[in-house]
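Input sequence (379 aa), recorded before submission:
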Amino acid sequence: MSSPTPIKRSKSKHSSYSSSSASNSSLSSIIEPPQSLFPSKGEFLRLIAVLAIASAVAISCNHFTSTSKPFCDTNLDPTDSFSDSCEPCPSNGECYEGKLECIYGYRRHGMLCIEDRDINETAKKLSEWVEAGLCEAYAQVLCYGTGTVWVRENDIWNGLDEYKFMQNVGSDHTTYVHTKRRAMETIAKLLETRTYLHGLQEFKCPDALAEYYKPLTCRTRELVSKYALILVPVSVALIGCAVSFWKVRQRRYLSARAEELYNQVCDMLEENALRSKSVDGGGESWVVASWLRDHLLLPRERKDPQLWKKVEELVQDDSRVDRYPKLVKGESKVVWEWQVEGSLSSARRRKKERDEVKSDEGINTNLNQSGQTLKNLKH
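Predicted structure, token format:
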């Protein structure tokens, strides 16, 4: 009976301990805040940066609003314009009763007057247009001696009205005149100037700048004249080489063609002589040289007397051919005759004869084989 009692006590102690630990953990969870409640290190730094920027912007706005002052009048004494009661009037601006008005060609940007972009672009294009016109005219003078060198200021001023970009300026006459004045100021910086009667100015394109406006033909002519001492000898040398090469090539062609014609002349003379001396032959053993020339030469080759002259030289050096004058049809002609007695046939004719013999032998062999075949079939 005494054993169950301590067991129950132990259970009570265990249950009381567990209940106390659970209550402690719940209490600590209530007291300790969650980890997501506090920002991380990186988020904390970004938060500080945002706060700093916002503070700077707020301070700056407060400063400008608190320190904004009216502008000092333009006609005010310069010593008074530096007072603390007003802001000095900026350059390119006119101030009256504390208000700022920028002059033509400038626009307000904060407390300053800056140049108008549209007017600047138009004035720049005007100056480039005038520069191109004057430099092209001066380039014509340098190249061909005709054109205009110096142009009066009044002519340029009136010519600006014709430029197509002036329509972008608008209908305001003051702005229109200001744009032209700005263009003239730029032109005066780019071009050469001189003063003539009544203090008016004239403008001229600089020589260095006019070089870029010269036509291509003019530049080429100037380069040729500048380097003539070098180009002339080189050109003469090239032409001489070309002529020499053509002459050598023409000489080789004439020699090769003359030898070809010479061989044809020998073959024709030899055949004509053999035919005239044969039993059933007829005709003369000689041939008129001019007839051979007209027969062998092409029409375009007859215009070159050097070709047939070389053939005649080759024939003259050949001892197998006799050359003598003969009266033919009442006219004296030079005839050529092949010497049959005691002469050697030309290599071309010997080759031709060998080819004919081989051809005849081949024909006879074929006929014999055909005859033998027919005999075998009969038996």
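Checked by second reader. The two ends are 154 Å apart (CA to CA).
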